[in-house]
Specification:
By secondary structure, this protein is mainly α. It has one domain (about 1-59). About 30% of the residues lie in helices and about 5% in strands. The protein is built from 2 helices and 2 strands. The chain has helices at about 15-25, 45-50; strands at about 35, 45. About 5% of the residues are buried.
């Protein structure tokens, strides 16, 4: 999970549906005030990503 983005799923072994499901079932339950320190880019919070990350919408 990155600020307003997600990891790439176009590489071998990548799976967009699995990534989105993992974000929703493993990260989002942590609480809106939890800080995310991504591998690169600025920090964010779970609450900000729930609200503002267009890639995390369930389709």
């Amino acid at each position: 999970l990155f600020r307003r983005s997600i990891g790439r799923t176009d590489l071998p072994g990548g799976n967009h549906d699995v990534l989105i499901r993992s974000i929703h079932t493993k990260l989002f339950p942590l609480g809106d005030d939890v800080t995310v320190h991504p591998g690169h880019g600025p920090n964010t919070t779970i609450g900000e990503e729930k609200r503002d990350n267009p890639f995390c919408a369930l389709g």
